[in-house]
Amino acid sequence: MLGSVYAKTLRDLRGQTLVWGLGLAAIGIVNIWGFKSVQQMPGLISFLENLPPAFKALIGDIQAMALAEGFLRAKLFDALPLLLAVFAVSQGTQMLAGESEQKTIDLLMAQPVRRWRIALEKYLAVATSLAVMCVLMVAGLLLCGPLFEVDLSSRYLLAATVSGLPLAWLFTSLALLGSSLFARARQAALSAGIVVVASYVFEMLRLLVPELRSWTAVSVFAHHKAGYTLAGELSGVPILLQLGLAAVLLGAALLVWQRRDLA
Amino acid sequence: MAPPAIQTRQLTKYYGRQLGIEDIELMVPKGEVFGFLGPNGAGKTTTIRLLLDLIRPTGGTASILGLDCRREGLAVRRKVGYLPGEFTLYENLTGQQLLLHLGSLRGGVDWKRVEELATRLGADLGRSIRSLSSGNKQKLAVIQAFMTRPEVLILDEPTSGLDPLIQQEFFGLVHEARTGGATVFLSSHNLTEVERVCDRVASIRCGRLVAVEEVDAVRSRTVRIVRLTCERALDAERFTVEPGIGEVQVDGRHLRCRVEGPLGRLIALAEPHGIIDLLSREPNLEETFLALYGHQGGDDAG
What we know:
The complex is a heterodimer.
Chain A: H1 5-39, H2 44-49, H3 53-59, H4 68-75, H5 80-102, H6 105-109, H7 115-144, H8 154-162, H9 165-181, H10 185-208, H11 220-225, H12 236-259
Helix pairs in contact in A: 1-4, 1-7, 5-7, 5-9, 5-10, 7-8, 7-9, 7-12, 9-10, 9-12
Chain B: E1 6-15, E2 18-28, E3 33-37, H1 44-51, E4 59-64, E5 67-68, H2 73-79, E6 80-83, H3 95-105, H4 111-121, H5 134-146, E7 152-156, H6 164-179, E8 183-188, H7 191-197, E9 200-205, E10 208-214, H8 215-220, E11 223-230, H9 236-240, E12 245-251, E13 254-260, H10 264-270, E14 275-281, H11 285-293
Parallel strand pairs in B: 3-8, 3-9, 6-7, 7-8
Antiparallel strand pairs in B: 1-2, 1-4, 4-5, 9-10, 11-13, 11-14, 12-13
């Protein structure tokens, strides 16, 4: 498992991938359990319908809250990329800046492997870890859903999880760009983290402020939400947009890394 | 005509406004063991990192075996074994895993060669790197540099942390590499080490090349501080008039002086007094540089 930079990075991440995957599955299971309790509350939907418009805007489709899929969407899947972003940013910024800080970079970069390829393999390893975490989460939900006697469409679970990955990969590209630009992992994490949080805050504001509601095109979280439906269908354009932006940021990161001095 | 193993032309590196190195001109023919001598911060590591394309020059060029270090960095790194001066190894791996990993990045490694090197240096490849002392980590770094029998070896402060017996073995490896046709570029701040193993030596100070000369020429001008004790009282005047002997202090049977070049003349002068004890100390490199080259060189370098 040490034959390439990709394989070694994946190996280094294996413990955290497992813990994060199981953690996400646990969060999902708690939400299914929560839905089981909420489902039994009479008048929940009419209570939600009477909330102020701002709260209703944050919840989204109120009627869908009566369904397990809609409940999970509001409580878990809409925020899944944000959870994955924590992993993406923390690990993504370690990829290059972390190695520079730990002084392992000289020995690695002195090997006959192109610089951009080393960065790309590290990126792909983090992207794979994110995918594995999602697989673990879906597996946990599929296995535990029946225990709570909650009717959950496996197609929906897969679509909702898969649609979270492009945004997580976009944030990984952002983290790699930070890692290429800065010699210190902390600086890289801070810069990438600020962009992630700002994107999420913008999406919240977009939902709360009527004048901003039409600014869907510039909100990556809005594209993520548009990427899947309650029926478990994936929407190509929003997903491709996120993947395209991820590719652009990745390209920029590789270019910066290829040209700069090692710290 | 075959290209030299290593060549730099007006190689210059500034870190912002701070000088790293300036106008470094080096030409190392194939099969030579070339010393690169200088105090800490003189610009040795900057030069080496430029050779390996880890950093980019502000001006000038560098080539290894005729390949441009900047444009053909990948091909250069295929031919070079590198031992960094300041490094950390992946602590979550064992020595064996690290060498397998680095070997596979080089397209595979002859494991028998690795085992042979490990045996000679007394390296335990099965232990976690986290649990190794700095000397044992240095052994792994030496092994990874030599394991693919590269055409050019670039070794930055290679013996730091190695005990004297292992240093002996290391010098044996350098000698064998040269016998096998490899070129060795050895950076050091230890004059004795360079004198022991190198054919020629370049001296760098404050980012600028001070001299490139045969090791024998340097050796003939090496300065030592000598303390000598004899059976009978010594006469200071006997020593002060002798060329190459200076800063003479005599206290009865004890003599302290500074000797440039071989010690034979001093010993000959003291011998009639019955030498009991003789201690020779090499001055630190800064003192040596001042003695060898005076105040040549510029201001601070990175």
